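User: Can you write out an input/output pair for a complex, sequences first and structure second?

Assistant: Here is one pair. Inputs:
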Amino acid sequence: MARAWEAVDAARRDAISKTFSDLARRVVEAKPDLLLVVSPDHWVNFFLDNLPSICIGVGETHKGPPEPWLQHLPYGSIAGHPEFALHLARTALDGGFEPSLSHHLELDHGFAIPLWKMGIDSLPPLVPIIVNTIEPPMPSLRRCLAWGDLIRGAIERYPGRLRVAILATGGVSHSIGEHDMGRIDEAFDRECFEQFRSADREGLLAFLERRLDAAGNGAAEMRNWLVAHGATQGKGFELLGYHPYPEWYVGCGFAAWDLGER
Amino acid sequence: MTETACDHIMRDYWLSKLFFDLQAPAAADEYRAGRDRVLDRYPLKPEVRLAVVQEDVTALAPLVNPYLLRFYFVAIGKSEAWFLERIRKTGPAASNEGARG
């Protein structure tokens, strides 16, 4: 998207920009004290030497994207929230989850592009959660949903008043570096949105178990959506926009879960 | 998700390491300036090194993560059209199916 922004005509660029703005408005209006971002790592922090399924960024700061084509973004250093991040880690370990921890993550385009395109002027402290959606074996779909449950519990039990917004990036269908690179599966994407909207957890999992493999390797990033879905208990899912742009090889989907809590 | 053979996929470690390392701009510059000198530092199997030298997308695709594969050919200056033409001829490689969903 960032490298081929101009490849899409102005009308469709405007349309997706409006959707980004809608998403940003909702985040700003929620007045979050911290932003928990669930995203992949595209071979930046991790390699075959050490490839965690889940990693929580517990550092005081995180480094911005290393990609040369993103050096113009205003994310040289991004503030973290180690107190909450370590609280989440403790909650996880007490609950039978064993995340990896990092005190200094580099947040690649999976994090940076949505933040940049949302155009939020002042980012709240950010807690990154990296889900391995890049190299098999990946965490199970059910486990990703359970991670969302765990995050919700950690927020509720945090000792102190804290408003947390969760941003899950990636998806929907896309294929990168594979024989069907560039293929977008609109039917899958639209059915996927319906499944999220239904808030039927077992139905959603069954659908993804059945169809995710065929929607391209990038569709694995729907695990990040499952984390958000679990954290919100599937309440208030609203599709904000769907922009299947072949020039970018991605079926770009945008959604919000409005808990109605103000 | 149901376990499949894809979960037991084995990558070619040194090929993957080469592609991973070339993400650093300075390393990519050095590689473009003297490919063989860089390749000498990686204990690639002869047939894998040959596939690298021949820019054989079909041979390399099953050995490495698809994101790294795509990145590599960008790093050595191949156009997107060049890569798409070749990767789309590979067909659904069973060994890479595990990188999906």
